[in-house]
Design goal:
Elements lengths: L2 H6 L3 H17 L7 H15 L3 H19 L3 H16 L3 H17 L9 H17 L4 H12 L6 H20 L1
Helix pairs in contact: 2-3, 3-4, 4-5, 5-6, 5-7, 6-7, 7-8, 8-9
């Protein structure tokens, strides 16, 4: 089993051992694809977060996101690292920094719209949670956050589900205009 599977099974100790072994292999081997290292760093971040070590998790997620950007430039592949960073920060209750990471990711997606895969709403939900949390802490920002959430919700693409989301988003926007 890989470390992400072990984390889903809540086997943090085995996941940590697995990711440490993978990290040693990647650090020692030559000629491996360069994108393996950022993926391992993201797994390190997941393990550290599960162990309650926020500073170490933050460092791993930031390093992963920056390594992806260095390898892939402003692309979907690089944006994934910033999605991971935003999700971690949001789960940690740091909504402002989470939104900053998500905005970086969305900026990359806007630049690289030709290679964008289907984006499931589950990928966008942590952004929505961060925006809502930030809005609760900063009520004056709520109207701008509602507009941003609407725009981001339009990125979801899952066949019939994306049509449902688009319709719901349009209704939310209509309701929001009535209250702004």
């Amino acid at each position: 089993m890989c470390s992400s599977d072990l984390l889903q099974l809540d086997d943090v100790s085995s996941a940590e051992a697995s990711v440490n072994e993978a990290r040693r292999i990647v650090d020692a081997a030559r000629g491996l694809p360069p994108w393996w290292r950022p993926r391992i760093l993201a797994l390190v971040g997941e393990v550290e977060a599960c162990k309650g070590r926020s500073q170490e998790a933050e460092r791993a997620f930031v390093d992963s996101a920056n390594a992806r950007r260095a390898i892939f430039g402003s692309s979907w592949s690089a944006a994934e690292g910033f999605f991971d960073l935003g999700r971690f920060r949001s789960n940690d209750g740091r909504y402002g920094p989470a939104l900053a990471a998500y905005r970086t990711a969305f900026g990359m997606i806007d630049i690289d719209s030709t290679t964008r895969p289907e984006i499931r709403f589950q990928r966008l939900a942590p952004f929505m949670e961060a925006a809502i949390g930030f809005g609760e802490q900063n009520p004056a920002q709520r109207p701008a956050l509602a507009r941003e959430m609407f725009r981001v919700s339009q990125l979801a693409r899952e066949g019939a589900a994306s049509q449902t989301i688009a319709r719901a988003s349009a209704r939310v926007a209509k309701i929001g205009r009535a209250h702004v």
